[in-house]
Write a structure and sequence with these properties.
Layout: H1 2-25, H2 31-34, H3 38-51, H4 53-85, H5 87-100, H6 109-116, H7 120-144, H8 148-156, H9 161-198, H10 205-214, H11 218-246
């Protein structure tokens, strides 16, 4: 009941904004060029759905985001764990990591474009880079900040290195790792749409948005923005639910 009440309260502002948008769109004049009526947006949604363009583009964007998150997150998890657990690896990679992460994501586009072109591989690589940095950082920080009293308990029970990692260090670092996953997920979805806008070749929501802009179809652009926002919101809810399930052993503050 409480969750339903919270959801209903959270819908008040979006509904009011939609109504205000529709009122502005119906004023005519210059407003008709800046705003699009809600019924026009609905018609554009039906048009894209019936043509199959929306489903194909949405699926392509999910593939770009999923592939980038999988590769970037997995490699970032391994690199961050190595940096947090092995001192020589930390000495060797931390300066390199701190140098590379200062380069904006857009700064990699020319290099990746020259090496891999502007196809699907280039898109997934750029998305993977966006997921890589936060995953490395929060995995590394989580493992480095495990309290000594926890590892001392492992020494008392004579746990070996693997047992200490799996039973003590990994669970203690999980809250930080999930924070990194939240960050990686947000950056992944944002960079997916951004790279599709920049690399118009292929398919994706960003590509349809670019085409809609070129054809002055604001209704199509808004349909894509709606799907981008709702998808990001849904993914955040899914990761939150996963985090609560995995970290259910933690005390919850009411």
């Amino acid at each position: 009941m409480k969750n339903i009440k919270t959801l209903l309260i959270g819908l008040i502002v979006p509904v009011l904004l939609l109504l205000l948008w529709d009122v502005q769109a119906r004023q005519g004049g210059a407003n008709s060029l800046t705003f699009v009526r809600l019924d026009q947006i609905g018609a554009a949604l039906i048009e894209l759905y019936r043509s199959g363009d929306l489903g194909a583009a949405y699926g392509a964007s999910l593939i770009h985001a999923g592939g980038g998150l999988l590769w970037g997150g997995l490699i970032g998890l391994l690199v961050g764990a190595a940096m947090g657990l092995v001192r020589p690896v930390e000495w060797a990679l931390v300066p390199l990591y701190n140098s590379f992460r200062q380069v904006p994501l857009l700064g990699w586009l020319p290099l990746i474009g020259l090496w891999f072109g502007s196809g699907e591989s280039a898109k997934i690589i750029i998305v993977a880079i966006s997921a890589f940095y936060p995953t490395v950082l929060y995995t590394y920080e989580g493992l480095k900040n495990v309290e000594n009293r926890f590892t001392e308990v492992g020494s008392i029970y004579r746990l070996n290195a693997w047992q200490t990692f799996w039973r003590i260090q990994w669970p203690a670092a999980l809250p930080s790792i999930f924070t990194g996953l939240f960050q990686a997920l947000a950056f992944t979805w944002i960079s997916t749409i951004g790279v599709e806008l920049l690399f118009a070749a292929g398919n994706g929501l960003g590509t349809i948005m670019q085409t809609g802009q070129l054809n002055a179809r604001l209704d199509i652009v808004l349909v894509c923005i709606l799907f981008v926002g709702l998808t990001g919101f849904t993914l955040n809810l899914l990761v939150s639910a996963l985090s609560r399930h995995v970290l259910r052993w933690r005390p919850v503050k009411n």
